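WARN retry 2 of 3 for item q-0093 after timeout on previous attempt; input resubmitted unchanged.
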Amino acid sequence: MFDYDNTDSDEEYDDILGQTFFNKYLCIKKLGKGSFGEIFQAVYDKEEYALKFEDRKKNCDLLQNEAGIMNYLKGPNIPIIKSYGFNSSYNILVMQLLGKDLEYLLKKRGTFSVKTVCMLGLQMVNILETIHEKHILHRDIKPENFVMGLGQCSNIVYLIDFGLAKKYRSMTTLIQYPLTMKKKFTGTARYASINALKGYEHSRRDDLESLCYIFIYFLKGILPWQKIKAKDKEEKYKKILQKKMEITSSELCRGIPKEFENMLTYVKNLKYEEKPDYKKLHDLLDKVMKEENYKNDYIYDWTLDEEKNKNEITNDNSIYNHEEKHNRKDENYHIKRNTKIYYTFEEPEINCSSACSIF
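OK item q-0093 returned
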């Protein structure tokens, strides 16, 4: 995820800002924290990128797993990977720079409109169907891990943070791995499925149940288990699980279109190995759009907010003069030359014209 509200420098990452990695990418700004690393904005040859750093002393190597999975999944809604490598201190992933995550955008408003949730939802369901068809579970579906693109791709939703992702079936036989119990919890408790909190092995149904909780959160601005108090993490997980088991889909979805309740009820009743009917979920969102006469025009709530703000800005160019915004002198930065490239992916041009035509 990109936690834009948590941009204070951590001591262990203080040596990154102003450094050059792979003798190319100059880190100019901290963007925030990921689930297991720090994300920085970098520039190279007048292009901007995102660099994700993982402290090698922690010996988790989740970033290498993420790089491999993202390179395997590459497609319209997955950030383009440029390079993966390491130096003496960090594992480093270089990827396409994206915009704000959906949690950040939600915090600016409190809730999203039904239209915005449906337009986002259609893309989000498609993304999960695509990665599931490629034998991968994400296992940490939450608003922070869905990010909007930039420029020509600003209407496209991207899924990020694949450090916890894993295969759920054989790529040759398509046989799903056996259901196991008493697994250590993986994911984010607020959006995790009931079965995941119980300790069951993840399957496709769990990614989708998390997605349903996200839709409800977007529409209501809060979930009933968000303010639960507990003495430690384990007790909190138990209390969240209890609340999720006690509340009915009808209660949880009160005040929002019935289709969201139908969606949640459907995914909660899926069996471990059962293939979800993604078209059914897509159709439920489409039904809401049609009943409300909404057009899938990619005009999201924040798009309207931005237009409103633009209209309120004065035309006094002397106040809003940004001509020195990108006037940075490279001599102010020390080039870090001890970066060893472990392996590098092909660097295709970042072109989203084909992605934008899919939805």
